[in-house]
């Protein structure tokens, strides 16, 4: 192989393992199934070294689909000096009638499509950007959890035909009214107290995340 050749390597990534296939930059070359390795960083590093040892004059081009495992494989491989592309699953070309999917087939397909230049890579955020995104996601989750807790408390009131006559729900006046409620049975009173405690904790959690997000965004580019 001359030093200008490229080796295209498809990675089908999962939590515990990665399925690998590759294809040489030669006319008529066929994709080859390499096998499966652990998804540990040491295994991915060792995999890259194996390919570099077998194809010392080639440039390694890795590709994998974006997913819940994030971008750490991209950052690891690029830190080792290799090219890596992350592809949105929705942008991967599909042939009519193509229904059967396996890890091996997915890895082979990625390698072939990368060689034929039929893939479009997505933007990979910087680690700092992703960190802010995680903080924002945590805040969104906190908002949803608070909304769910309030809904559960409202459902309890509805089942017992208890209605608040004020105008501003979840105001200090409303919360004080809730703490003074007496339900028909002691077991229901326990449920009410648990819901109120949960709402109080989730309000505090949301406030903490609001403050943290506001603080970190000021220093974010």
UniProtKB/TrEMBL annotation:
<feature type="coiled-coil region">
    <location>
        <begin position="132"/>
        <end position="159"/>
    </location>
</feature>
<feature type="domain" description="Transposase IS110-like N-terminal">
    <location>
        <begin position="9"/>
        <end position="156"/>
    </location>
</feature>
<protein>
    <submittedName>
        <fullName>ISSwp3, transposase OrfA</fullName>
    </submittedName>
</protein>
<dbReference type="GO" id="GO:0003677">
    <property type="term" value="F:DNA binding"/>
</dbReference>
<dbReference type="GO" id="GO:0006313">
    <property type="term" value="P:DNA transposition"/>
</dbReference>
<dbReference type="Pfam" id="PF01548">
    <property type="entry name" value="DEDD_Tnp_IS110"/>
</dbReference>
<dbReference type="InterPro" id="IPR002525">
    <property type="entry name" value="Transp_IS110-like_N"/>
</dbReference>
<dbReference type="InterPro" id="IPR047650">
    <property type="entry name" value="Transpos_IS110"/>
</dbReference>
<dbReference type="GO" id="GO:0004803">
    <property type="term" value="F:transposase activity"/>
</dbReference>
<keyword id="KW-0175">Coiled coil</keyword>
């Amino acid at each position: 192989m001359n030093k200008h050749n490229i080796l295209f390597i498809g990675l089908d990534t999962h939590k515990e393992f990665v399925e690998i296939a590759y294809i040489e930059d030669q006319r008529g070359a066929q994709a080859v199934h390499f096998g499966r390795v652990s998804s540990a960083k040491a295994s991915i590093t060792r995999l890259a070294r194996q390919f570099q040892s077998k194809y010392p004059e080639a440039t390694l081009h890795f590709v994998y689909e974006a997913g819940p495992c994030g971008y750490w494989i991209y950052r690891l491989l690029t830190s080792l000096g290799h090219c890596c592309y992350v592809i949105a699953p929705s942008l991967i070309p599909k042939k009519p009638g193509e229904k059967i999917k396996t890890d091996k087939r997915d890895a082979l397909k990625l390698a072939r499509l990368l060689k034929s230049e039929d893939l479009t890579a997505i933007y990979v955020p910087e680690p700092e950007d992703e960190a802010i995104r995680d903080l924002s996601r945590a805040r969104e989750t906190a908002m949803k959890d608070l909304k769910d807790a309030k809904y559960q408390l409202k459902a309890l009131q509805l089942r017992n035909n208890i209605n608040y006559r004020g105008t501003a729900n979840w105001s200090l006046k409303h919360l004080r009214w809730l703490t003074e409620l007496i339900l028909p049975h002691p077991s229901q009173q326990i449920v009410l107290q648990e819901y109120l405690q949960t709402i109080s904790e989730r309000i505090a959690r949301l406030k903490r995340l609001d403050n943290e997000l506001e603080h970190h965004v000021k220093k974010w580019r």
